[in-house]
Amino acid sequence: MGLIVVSNREPYSPVREGHELHWKAAVGGLTAALDPVLRERGGTWVAWGDGEREIRSVELPPGEGRYRLERLPLRESELQDYYYGFSNRALWPMSHYFLNRVRYLGRYWKAYQRVNRRFAEAVLQVHRPGDLVWVHDYQLCLVPRLVREALPEARIGFFWHIPWPSSEVFRTLPWDHEILEGILGADVVGVHVPEYARHFRSCCRIVLGYDNDGHAVQAPGRAVRVESFPIGVEAKAFAELACSSEVRRAAEELRRQVGTPFLLGVDRLDYTKGIPERLEAFAEYLGRHPEAHGKVTLVQIAVPSREQVDAYRQLREQIERLVGRINGTYGQAGWTPVHYITRGLERRELVAHYLAADVMLVTPLRDGLNLVAKEFAAVSERGVLILSEFAGAAAELKEALLVNPYDYDGLARAIGQALSMPEEERRQRLAELKDRLHRFDLSAWTEGFLHALEGAR
Ligand code: ADQ
């Protein structure tokens, strides 16, 4: 059976160097998860062709030609309304419970429908009987139904990578029916944690009147399985990288340059990630612990994203002001309390940071799962993970120090607790985390979902 993967972002991006064009693998979980499966099974990946619009189709991986990438060119106006508009100003803030940030505009919705239709048409062009179709994420909710209407017998899976909110929040979306019906075109709907699956099923009951048996939603004439499949990380590859002498040297160098104890935050610059709240809590900690001055340092790496959306630009300015305030208030000759970095890191450099950190702060206000928490736990040898109870990963990573990111006092206390945790306890917690991460790694996620899809109906 061939596999057709459908996602907004492409797995490899075109990069021009002089006259030469290279295809560079995208950083992130989806490429890491699905590129190996497509290499093995063969098939097609359908995605938005970002750049080099005239190239509609390319064989991947470069030079190996194991599967085909079909690239959809989007006009700038389509991108504005479908991607920055409906996806990132409506569905993203709504799903993360930020109702004060939503913009529900008819113009966005129209573009979203149009672009989803184009993705579905691209799937129909390459689909052969027996193929599995796996659609990803909130940008493409309507694709499962559109494919189902044309191919009633197709096997379609859908994975939602962000939180599924309570029905009270979901119902604020003027197109709540259409989004649910779009997704219910799939045979299997996957989310990261059981709570999101419960919310999804209750939305189907309350909004559409479709019952469920605690697992599957009964849509007219078809049952749709709704289940949690928490994504994993490439635990073995991360652990191996952490053993390389180059990465170990880089980690030691970081600890020497930054100073210790070394606190770390790594996030996409997004208002859901709780970066200002984390900085406030760190300031609170410094205010209470004069003995930490000159010693405890926070390295915050935040890669800008979606900068065309106002809220993201404002957040960047807010963080810069906060960093300036903390460094101005507490800094002294030879010690800068917050090191703030806004560039993307290569994987080796990222792993060196994880290895160097005494405490990792993963404190989103709301997060579908959060891969950074898992990557850190796969790499670290003596660090403590402080994890928000509102990240999906908290449902699995019980050995982390769980915190409420809105509670600055509690977060400041957790920093103190992490820094004074006995070595033996740190190692014990990490050992248990690692054990789970190796058993439920990235390939287990991919296989688990595809197995469910193959077994559907
Ligand atoms: P994201 O919101 O992007 O993903 P996350 O799960 O943390 O959040 O993944 C971020 C990825 O980017 C990680 O692999 C991390 O290593 C990498 N990254 C972050 N900052 C970086 C930097 N400065 N340099 C290099 N790499 C960096 C969405 C959902 C999540 C869900 C994932 C997967 O919002 O909740 O876990 O999809 O389903």
TrEMBL record:
Pathway the protein acts in: Glycan metabolism; glucosylglycerol biosynthesis
Top-level taxon in the UniProt lineage: Bacteria
Keywords recorded for this protein, A-Z: Glycosyltransferase, Transferase
Catalytic activity of the protein: ADP-alpha-D-glucose + sn-glycerol 3-phosphate = 2-O-(alpha-D-glucopyranosyl)-sn-glycerol 3-phosphate + ADP + H(+)
Single GO term (MF): alpha,alpha-trehalose-phosphate synthase (UDP-forming) activity
One Pfam family from the record: Glyco_transf_20
Enzyme class name: transferase
Function: Involved in salt tolerance by producing GG-phosphate from ADP-glucose and glycerol-3-phosphate (G3P), an intermediate in the synthesis of the osmolyte glucosylglycerol (GG).
Protein name (record): Glucosylglycerol-phosphate synthase
Species assigned in the record: Calidithermus terrae
Lineage: Bacteria, Thermotogati, Deinococcota, Deinococci, Thermales
